[in-house]
Write a structure and sequence with these properties.
Length: 152
Amino acid sequence: MKRALTVLLTAAMIAGTMAGCGGSGKNVSYKDGTYTGVSETHENEDEDDVAGNGYGMVEITIKDNVITDCVYTTYELDGTQKDENYGKGSDGSVANRDYYNKAQKALAACEQYAVQLVETNSLDEVDAISGATINYEEFKQAVTEALKEAQE
């Protein structure tokens, strides 16, 4: 229940922030340049469940009030970038194939979130991908922070 309430409040906060800037930036002017935003950290309440723990960072490039590039990278809580080794054991082997596949699917979704943002130029039009909803929430938070920095 506590987790559901936290997710609901976070979603409401993000929606309120995006409503203030029209979600797509149509009512807001942005300075040309490259801007970085970082999400809050996500940490599961169960210490044994590390799936999805970490945070996300975006780097957005804006030219003539249009998002021309977006790179979204996710990190473990210790700052290690999630990459092709994400979901492997500490010895570099795949001990749990299902866990590794889920981790890699979530990682691949990060690239799709960035592509969707550039294609649509609207955070409201970036769709969540099943299996990567934590990354989706982190992406929205990070983009919101970067766009705040870019506002004129």
